[in-house]
Every structure is written in C-alpha cells, then in structure tokens.
Amino acid sequence: MSDKLQKTAITPATHTAPPAKFSHGVRKGNILQVAGQVGFLPAVPGQSPTPAGPTLREQTLQTLANVKAILEEGGARWEDVMMLRVYLTDVDHFAEMNEIYNEYFADLTEAPAARTTVYVGLPAGLLIEIDALAVLG
Amino acid sequence: MSDKLQKTAITPATHTAPPAKFSHGVRKGNILQVAGQVGFLPAVPGQSPTPAGPTLREQTLQTLANVKAILEEGGARWEDVMMLRVYLTDVDHFAEMNEIYNEYFADLTEAPAARTTVYVGLPAGLLIEIDALAVLG
Amino acid sequence: MSDKLQKTAITPATHTAPPAKFSHGVRKGNILQVAGQVGFLPAVPGQSPTPAGPTLREQTLQTLANVKAILEEGGARWEDVMMLRVYLTDVDHFAEMNEIYNEYFADLTEAPAARTTVYVGLPAGLLIEIDALAVLG
C-alpha cells in the first residue's frame, strides 16, 4: 500500500554502537522513540564508550545532547517531545538535576514535555539515563 | 499548515507547580501523556507539596485522582488510557495496591489499560508514583 | 461516529490472568501497548503462575515469548515494536541478557526497536520484566 508506514532506525554518527540489537531511535509515521541514553561522549573508533565525566552535571548535559542528536536525526525538535523518562541513581541528585534541566530547557518555545523521574540502578559510573517519546507534525 | 498538530500543556488548577520545567500533562493530536504523579494533596498557595497521608491506600487514591484530573483537563477519560506505569517502593505493597486498584477501576466501561509495576526508589515519604499514556478518539 | 477508535483488550489464551484489573495488551487505532511481561509459563488452570525456570536465559526467552504472543494476538509483529523496556534486577545480568536478546532478534527484518534497560526490584524469583510499545501500519 502506498500509505504503509515505514519504520526507520535513527543512528547519529556521533553515537557509540548500541551494545545489543536495538536502535538508538526509531521513527514510524509521526511517532519517534528515543532509546535510553546515558552520558557517553561521542564515539571514538577503537575506544569503548566513555562518560563525559564523573559529575551529575557533565553526565546530564551529555545525556541531553545525546537525546537531542537522535531527535534531530529523526527530524524532531525538543518541542516535539511528549515525555522524558529520567532515571537517576540517587534521590539526593533530584534538586541538582532539576537545576540543570531548567537551564537546559530555558529557551523552549512550546509547552515542555511531561516527565517521570525514578531512582534505579545503573551500570557502575553512570548517574543518569534518559529516554524520550516524541510526536511530530 | 492548517493540519499542524498543536502541543498543549495540561495543568489542572489543583496541582502543585512541577518542581522543574516539565508539564503535568501534554496533549498533541490524539496522544495524551501524563507525567509521573504522586500522592500530593491539591496545592495550597504558600505551602509546599504534602502527601495525602502516610499509608499506601491514601497515597494510591490521591495519585489516581491526580492522574485523573490531568486526563480530564486534557479531554480524556480513564477508558482512553492505554498504559499505566506504577512505581512502588516495596514489593510487599503489590497485593494491597492491586486491591485498591481493582476497587478504583471497578466501574471501568472498556478494556482496562495495560500496566507495568516495578519497584524503585522514590523521595522520602512517597510510596507510589504513576504515569499514564492515553490515546483519544 | 464511524471513525471512532475502539480500544481492545488483548488476552492470549496461554496467559495467566492478570493479578489486577489491567490488560496484558491493548490496541487502539494503530497503537498497541503490551503490559509488563515476566517469565511465566503458559497458564495451567488451577495452578498459580510459575516462572519458566530460575535462570536468566529461561526467563528472558519466556518473557519474550509472552510479549510476542500479545503482539501477535493484536495483529502486530516484532518489526512493529518501537520500544522495549527491559527491567533487570542485577546489573551483572546485562551482558548475558544482551547475548540472549541478540540471538532472539537475529532474524528481524526491519530496524530493531529502541530499548531502555534499568535495574529495579521485582517480586522474588523474577529476574526480568519487559513491556513493549508498537505502532502498526
């Protein structure tokens, strides 16, 4: 059918290869889903993934940059995001994460996304993970 | 374009201001996303957010009321909800939460939403958090 | 209205009854949401739900089979899945889960779904839970 929706993988050149058979992002019709991103620096061939730094600020900003790269590669903007899921490892990081989050989104030109923040375990050294659901159009 | 989808923030008057730049709910087209809700009582100006009570029952019912307020403000009903994500802090709360959940949804007139329940950390004093994805139409 | 979307519960015959008033899956329009699945074997009348086995491999394969049964009952394939949320209880299970995941999805004919993996608590004996969001069409 001519109106069959295509599902497309979104793989920014800067991203490290996923550690398993999943996509950093997928788009189908006007739905774009971003996989859980962490604070890994842009990929360097031959190097294993490296976090932007040990601090919550460094990792949060890099994680948001990684989400944004996938959104843009898929034709979306932050303004298209409906939901951000924020996974922290430490309840005491909530206030600082919110500060960074507010600075980061200060210039948003539409209603901000909904958000859920919960506290989970993450691999050693990682303090934050974020995924996103966007609706384009 | 006349058919461009608008993203709208959903902010019930009863709700405390979000602690960061996110929306309690957003709607775009026929998709409505409710942010993670906890058992905070309706906002009182000048007071910080206060849970409905210390018990799982009090917090669960208030949390569901908070989700419902956002759904209704966005033009949706419980029947439009596709997915509820329930975050508990204690595995031993599962059975009691299910009892409360079943009472609460006893009168649902359509297929109930799908649901995922997992056990995470939440800020001190909070026992449950719930978010929701609805499809209207 | 003739174009009103219907919400339909998806309940494979093999599945144990949900422990509360939720659906194993729901479909509305071209959106299909699969509830959190664990590694329970196909239901046997009169028996309580039983995990496929104690190992991560047994539970992961059964969990994926349970997700797949709901997708298929709802008219979807793995290729339609946009997002898989994987909940593990142990960070040390990540590498092995990825191996199993890659074997399982080796024959996927389209872009794989996005994925988020986080580490949470689950009821005793359960090592993995997975839910899924699919867009058909």
UniProtKB/TrEMBL annotation, chains A, B, C:
Region annotated Disordered sits at 1-22
Q: Name one GO molecular function term.
A: deaminase activity
- Which InterPro entries has this protein been placed in? RutC-like_sf (IPR035959), YjgF/YER057c/UK114 (IPR006175)
Q: Which GO terms describe its cellular component?
A: cytosol
Any matching Pfam family: Ribonuc_L-PSP
Q: Where is the composition biased (Low complexity)?
A: 8-20
Q: What is this protein called?
A: RidA family protein
Question: What is the species listed in this Swiss-Prot or TrEMBL entry?
Answer: Streptomyces buecherae
